[in-house]
Specification:
This protein is mainly α. The protein has helices at about 1-30, 35-55, 70-90, 95-105, 115-125, 125-155, 160-170, 170-180, 190-200, 205-215, 225-250, 255-265, 270-280, 285-310. It is globular and about 60 Å long.
Length: about 325
C-alpha cells in the first residue's frame, strides 16, 4: 500500500507539472490573458509564495558542512560555464553578446520555477529544504552578482556594484532567508505555520503557469543559432551537472540524498531570469529566449534521467 500511495503521489505531481505548463501555453496562444500575465504571476511568487516557502522549510533546519555544497553548486556551475562559453566563443568566433547570453542562461539553473516542482515530483516536499539552498544563496546571489557583472561587461564594459546591491536588497525572499535562520530556535504559532503552508502551496502551480505562459516554440531563429544552442544546452543539461557530480562525488567524496538533489538542481533547465537580464542588456535576446523555450521542455526528460542515474550515490 505504501508503494501504491507513493506512486499515486508522484503521478499526481507529475500531472500537475504537465497541466500547469500546458495551461500556460494555451492561455498565451489563446490570448485569454494579457501579455503581462507572467509579470503578475512572478510578482506573487517572488513576494509571497517563495518567502513563505523559505520561512516554512528552512525554519529549524540543522545547518552542517553538507549544506554548503548545495550553495556552492550554483557558483561552481556558473564559473565553469563562463569559462566553457568564453573558450567556445573564441574558437567559433562568437560575438561578446552571444557569449554573454549563453553564460546568463546556460551557466545558471532554473532552480526555483522549474526546479521546485520537479524536486517535489522526484523527491517529495523535504527536498525543498535543499532546493531553497541551491536557489537563494546559490542561484539568486550568483545572478545578482556574477550574472549582473557578466551582463554589464558584455554590454558596455562597465561594472555596476550599486546595481548588484540594489537587486539583492530589493528581493523579498532574501529577507525571508535571513529571517528563517534568525528564527530557527523560535517555534512558530500554529496559525503562522498554517498561513505559511497555504501561501507556499501556491509556489508550484503559479510558477509552472508562468513558465508555460513564457514558453515559445516558434523556431524561426533555430537555424541562425543552431550551433550556439547545441553548445548552450549541452553544457546546461549534460556537461555542467556531470562536472558538478565529478567534483562533489569524485573529488570531495560527498554522498547522500542532499548531494543527489544538488546534482539534479545543477541539471535543471536554463534560468528564465537570466534570459530576462540578457534581454534587458541586449545580449542576443533571440538566442536567450530559444535557450529557455527549448531547454525547459528538454529538461523535463533529462532531469528525471539524471535522478535515476545518480540514485543512491
Amino acid at each position: 500500500m505504501g508503494s501504491r500511495l507513493a506512486y499515486a503521489w508522484v503521478m499526481s505531481n507529475l500531472i500537475l507539472v504537465i497541466v500547469c505548463l500546458l495551461a500556460g501555453v494555451l492561455l498565451r496562444t489563446s490570448r485569454r490573458l494579457p501579455a503581462t500575465t507572467p509579470a503578475a504571476l512572478n510578482g506573487f511568487v517572488i513576494h509571497l509564495s517563495l518567502p513563505a516557502a523559505t520561512l516554512l522549510y528552512l525554519h529549524g533546519l540543522k545547518f552542517d558542512m553538507n549544506m554548503l555544497l548545495p550553495v556552492f553548486m550554483a557558483w561552481i556551475l556558473f564559473i565553469l560555464g563562463a569559462l566553457f562559453f568564453r573558450v567556445a566563443g573564441k574558437a567559433l568566433g562568437w560575438s561578446i553578446g552571444t557569449v554573454g547570453a549563453l553564460i546568463l542562461t546556460g551557466a545558471m539553473s532554473n532552480t526555483s520555477f522549474v526546479g521546485f516542482p520537479l524536486l517535489l515530483v522526484l523527491y517529495g516536499p523535504e527536498a525543498l529544504k535543499v532546493g531553497i539552498l541551491t536557489d537563494q544563496p546559490g542561484s539568486f546571489l550568483v545572478l545578482s552578482t556574477l550574472g549582473l557583472l557578466t551582463a554589464s561587461l558584455c554590454s558596455s564594459g562597465e561594472f555596476l556594484p550599486k546595481e548588484m546591491l540594489r537587486r539583492i536588497l530589493n528581493f523579498p525572499p532574501f529577507y525571508a532567508l535571513v529571517a528563517a535562520f534568525l528564527l530557527s530556535s523560535t517555534q512558530y504559532p500554529p496559525v503562522v505555520t498554517e498561513l505559511l503552508e497555504k501561501l507556499s502551496a501556491t509556489l508550484v502551480p503559479l510558477s509552472l503557469l508562468s513558465v508555460g505562459f513564457q514558453l515559445d516554440f516558434r523556431l524561426k531563429n533555430l537555424s541562425r543559432y543552431s550551433t550556439e544552442l547545441m553548445f548552450g544546452l549541452a553544457y546546461k543539461l549534460l556537461l555542467g551537472p556531470l562536472l558538478i557530480a565529478l567534483f562533489f562525488v569524485g573529488l570531495l567524496g560527498a554522498h547522500g540524498q542532499t548531494i543527489e538533489i544538488t546534482i539534479v538542481q545543477a541539471a535543471m533547465a536554463p534560468m528564465i531570469t537570466g534570459a530576462i537580464v540578457a534581454n534587458e542588456y541586449e545580449l542576443e535576446p533571440g538566442l536567450a529566449h530559444l535557450m529557455i523555450g527549448i531547454g525547459i521542455p528538454l529538461s523535463l526528460l533529462t532531469v528525471p534521467l539524471w535522478a535515476v542515474m545518480i540514485r543512491g550515490i
